[in-house]
Amino acid sequence: KAGVTQTPRYLIKTRGQQVTLSCSPISGHRSVSWYQQTPGQGLQFLFEYFSETQRNKGNFPGRFSGRQFSNSRSEMNVSTLELGDSALYLCASSRGTSGGAGSYNEQFFGPGTRLTVL
Amino acid sequence: LAKTTQPISMDSYEGQEVNITCSHNNIATNDYITWYQQFPSQGPRFIIQGYKTKVTNEVASLFIPADRKSSTLSLPRVSLSDTAVYYCLVGDMGSSASKIIFGSGTRLSIRP
Q1: Which of A33, B69, B89, B111 is deepest in the core (most CB within 10 A)?
Q2: Which pLDDT band, with edges at 50, 70 and 90, does B11 fall under?
Q3: Residue B19: pLDDT band with limits 50, 70, 90
Q4: What pLDDT does residue A101 have?
Q5: Residue B79: what pLDDT?
Q6: How far is CA A30 from CA A10, A50, A68, A117, in A?
Q7: Contact (CB<8Å) B96/A48
Q8: Chain B residues within 8 A (CB-CB) of chain A?
Q9: Which alpha helices (H) appear in chain A, and where do they start and end?
């Protein structure tokens, strides 16, 4: 089956602008999570959506927001871009529900969107 | 959430067996140990996951001692294509992605 897709793959913006990134999960997956990856901070959890509801949120300012649609596709928005927002933004999908003791809710990652803020 | 410690980098040669050890002294009873692999400009990819003793799949083995305070990822007969960053994750990953914390990872370089 098709993997996680993210669009666009590359994006260049200037400070103060806003940006919207899109993620299409694997068919049947109800959970979509977003991560920011930078050389200095590594891979950091932004938020997770499950059945159109934000289930968890990482330690990021309110400029970072997201949403999930009824078909499980998700978008992430960053407003008032700062230079430090330059990063690889990764989306991951999973079943989102525990399969019981001993199960693992594997995260399948997309290729990411490389955002550069000038 | 258990913190993990792993070497920042490792070097090896093609055909060798590579063992990457991860320390997780504060692992909880419900926590699983999971390893991901990441190539440049790609998302991480699941390699292997285990709870105790030994787990083996087609690409790697995972060794977990009885106290579960550490684990070792073993890559048999590495090739150049195994050059990547390897992340050790510890947590109760039954449902929510927020319980997944990626550390700094180990940058593995394989030489011809």
Answers
A1: A33
A2: very high
A3: very high
A4: 46
A5: 96
A6: 25, 6, 9, 31
A7: yes
A8: 32, 34, 41-46, 49, 51, 87, 93-98, 100-105
A9: none
Q: Give dist(CA B99, CA B92) in Å, integer.
A: 7
The number of distinct structural domains making up chain B is: 1
Inter-chain contact A107–B46, Cβ cutoff 8 Å? yes
> In this complex, how many residue pairs, one in chain A and one in chain B, have their CB atoms less than 8 Å apart?
71
Over residues A40-63, the pLDDT tens digits come to 888 888 999 999 999 888 889 999
* Residue B91, domain CATH: 2.60.40.10
Q: What is the DSSP string of A69-80?
A: -TTS-EEEEE-S
Contacts of B34 in chain A (CB under 8 A): 104
Give dist(CA A77, CA A47) in Å, integer: 12
A55/B41 Cβ within 8 A: no
Query: Would residue B2 count as lying in a domain?
Result: no
What does the pLDDT look like over A9-20, one tens digit per residue? 999 999 999 999
Find the domain containing B41 and state its range: 9-111
Point out which residues pair with B33 in neighbouring strands.
B50, B90
For chain B, what percent of residues have pLDDT higher than 90? 68
